[in-house]
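Side project, low priority. Logging it here so it doesn't get lost.
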Amino acid sequence: MSQPDSNKQGQDAEVSFYEKRKKIYAKGVRGYFDNWRIALVILTQVAFYGGLWLEWNDRQALLFHLVERKFYIFGIVFWPQDVIYLAVLLIISAYALFLVTAVAGRLFCGYACPQTVYTQLFMWIENWVEGDRNARMKLDKMPMNGRKLRLRATKFLLWGILSLWTGFTLVGYFTPVSELLNNIATNNLGPWETFWIFAYGGFAFLFAGFMREQVCKYMCPYARFQSVMFDPDTLIITYDPARGEPRGARKKDSDVSKLGDCVDCGQCVVVCPTGIDIRNGLQYECIGCAACVDICDQVMDKVGLPRGLVRYSTENAMAKQQSKADILSHMVRPRVLVYTAILILITIIAGWFLAHRIPLKVDIIRDRSTLAREADDGSIENVFMLQIMNTTEAPQRYNITVDGLTGAKITGEQAVDAAPAGLTSFNVVVSAPPESGKRGSNPIHFNITAEGDESITLREKASFLLP
């Protein structure tokens, strides 16, 4: 693509729409915020890898069983008819993310996002195998030899093991892990399980091992629209130019009285996982990990200057030189209150419905082959198929009655046994006198009640046909 250069008339300048990637060698840094990041990495991965092995009622505690079309979450069993709860969960998650972003910017990105977490895990392996930043840069520049081949092979092997274990763990939440292990041991793994283990493991290997900051900068939609949820009172990583400028190195014979506190060491850029310079102001590439805060505080300690040149602050606080107390007082503002109120309201309503959820579901299907028939005693019979879903994990016996028409009754067995967390289908014959209603469709109701627990009861509408 070429376009005229405004500075040189008559000449063309070649402009590229894509910037060639420069590999980022992020330097490791230890500090207050790095400790929090390590803690969140450990917490999230213990939950992810460890949750697979929890048991509840002699089964996997967390299992989204796609074959059986049932979701087990500890003592609760969800069926496809409970999809409304999934929708509510997504809404709650979205509003929680909006609230966190409005208050503290991209805090989720820096500490709990899977891309950030797995990149951190892969970088720990890389640092352990290949060494620190300088060692990795030297290794990349040297020609291929036995040592470089050995280090690269070791790194890729460990990355591959972690990636495949991650893929296995993910699939283990959708296929019972005991069944999955047995299929692997007997070389009988199904095609879908095989595909998703290698697909998810491959994406983890690619995204966390190679693409890293490119996912955050170019692929993640949150990086593009999160600024819409920012306002001047949102906590972000900031550089204090009033204090830091003009920047310059501290030399023995130089006059430092005219310099700001920034010694222009560039360490904030070296430790940044996305390679930006925080001194250039707020940028969408910043994931809020605060690595630059940790390293800048350490540099300030070494040169004998106060900490906080790079810190968590807000645009208003930087412009008006507000104190920490002022920053905290401005956190409670209309946007935050609205997000909080909506989040609390939805959570309370969802919690109430979940607590009062009846562990019984019934579908009533009319027998289409015989709409209505006359019995030997002259009564009219309709045949229905009832599908009873016992969503508890205990066997139940349900009593079935019918009302809505004078003299309507169930002919035959009026109770049914249902297996735990199972679906039971059976036919029910309902009879009624021909004079009990009008010709055509008449509304009736089935009442299904669990023996020994009348709180488990459902009343379902159906129609009774009279010729």
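Brief comment: Confidence is low (pLDDT under 50) at residues 1-8.
Revisit when time allows.
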